[in-house]
């Protein structure tokens, strides 16, 4: 592990320089191991593609104490532990007013139904959350769906929009400007402070998009608002070395 300090109240642990599923798995395991140490003063642990940032309260601990505690961890030992994660199914209404860029894939030789078939019903790995609370950067996109961001970003993208930017897919938890190609929208709030977990997923989890029609979109939206809809979440575990 490469431990570096870029701020007075944070330590960064680097595990590599490539976007890789194995590194993501190691970061998730390392985060859990640090949390188990229950180090006084740590306020947050944030994952990126290849690193983990430990934020701490300088009034409760200092960099030397934190480094000493972290030095007790051996990443090679952690790889033998059980890796648990969630699989969250997100219903998406593709195309139409929800996915204005779906037809743009015709220029790449793909009809809308082809794009939907290749984008839905597969597991995407949540590499990290960023840009805004709850925005997942997902890996595992079919190479035929790679598409550069729009030359002119939109000034407002509706919350729940699902899109593609380059080699990744993701979704917008809030109304926001953005330049991703929009395929559809989910009726499930991606950030909801009234839930036990305001954000349904975190780094290391998986997301599966399921295709629904417009009628189903509004049915789910209404059911969720009435507290009558339960998000489909499956809990899984695997060997970390797998």
Structure described in brief:
GO terms for molecular function: protein kinase inhibitor activity. The chain has 242 residues and is α+β, with helices and mostly antiparallel strands.
Describe this structure in words.
It is a single chain. The chain folds into 2 domains: 2-80, Gyrase A, domain 2; 84-239, Beta Barrel (Cyclophilin), CATH 2.40.100.10. Helix content is 20%, strand content 34%. It has helices spanning 21-37, 63-70, 75-78, 112-119, 214-225; strands at 2-7, 10-14, 42-47, 51-56, 82-94, 123-129, 136-139, 154-157, 161-165, 168-171, 176-178, 181-185, 206-212, 232-239. A hairpin with a 3-residue loop joins β3 and β4 (51-56). The model has no long low-confidence stretch (mean pLDDT 92). It holds the Pfam family CT_C_D. One of its GO terms (molecular function) is protein kinase inhibitor activity. It comes from Jeotgalicoccus aerolatus.
Quote the CATH topology of the largest domain: Cyclophilin
Largest sheet: 8 strands, mixed
Order of helices and strands: EEHEEHHEHEEEEEEEEHE
Shape: elongated
Tell me the name of the CATH homologous superfamily of the largest domain: Cyclophilin-like
SS field, number of helical segments:
5
Give the quaternary arrangement of the chains.
single chain
Topology:
Layout lengths: L1 E6 L2 E5 L6 H17 L4 E6 L3 E6 L6 H8 L4 H4 L3 E13 L17 H8 L3 E7 L6 E4 L14 E4 L3 E5 L2 E4 L4 E3 L2 E5 L20 E7 L1 H12 L6 E8 L3
């Amino acid at each position: 592990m490469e431990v570096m300090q870029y701020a007075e109240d944070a330590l960064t642990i680097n595990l590599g320089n490539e976007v890789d599923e194995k590194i993501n798995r190691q970061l998730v395991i390392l985060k859990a191991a640090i949390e188990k140490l229950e180090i006084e003063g740590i306020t947050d642990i944030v994952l990126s593609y290849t690193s983990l940032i430990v934020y701490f309260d300088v009034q409760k601990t200092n960099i030397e104490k934190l480094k000493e505690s972290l030095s007790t961890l051996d990443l090679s030992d952690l790889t033998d532990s059980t890796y648990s994660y969630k699989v969250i199914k997100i219903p998406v209404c593709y195309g139409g007013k929800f996915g204005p860029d779906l037809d743009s894939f015709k220029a790449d030789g793909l009809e809308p139904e082809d794009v939907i078939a290749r984008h839905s019903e597969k597991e995407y790995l949540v590499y990290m959350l960023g840009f805004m609370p709850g925005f997942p950067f997902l890996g595992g996109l079919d190479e035929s769906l790679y598409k550069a961001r729009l030359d002119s970003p939109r000034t407002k993208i509706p919350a729940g929009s699902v899109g593609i930017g380059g080699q990744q897919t993701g979704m917008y938890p809030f109304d926001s400007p953005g330049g991703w190609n929009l395929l559809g929208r989910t009726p499930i709030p991606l950030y909801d402070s009234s839930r036990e977990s305001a954000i349904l997923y975190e780094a290391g989890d998986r997301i599966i998009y399921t295709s629904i029609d417009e009628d189903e979109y509004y049915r789910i939206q209404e059911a969720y608002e009435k507290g009558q809809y339960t998000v489909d979440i499956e809990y899984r575990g695997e060997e970390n070395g797998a």
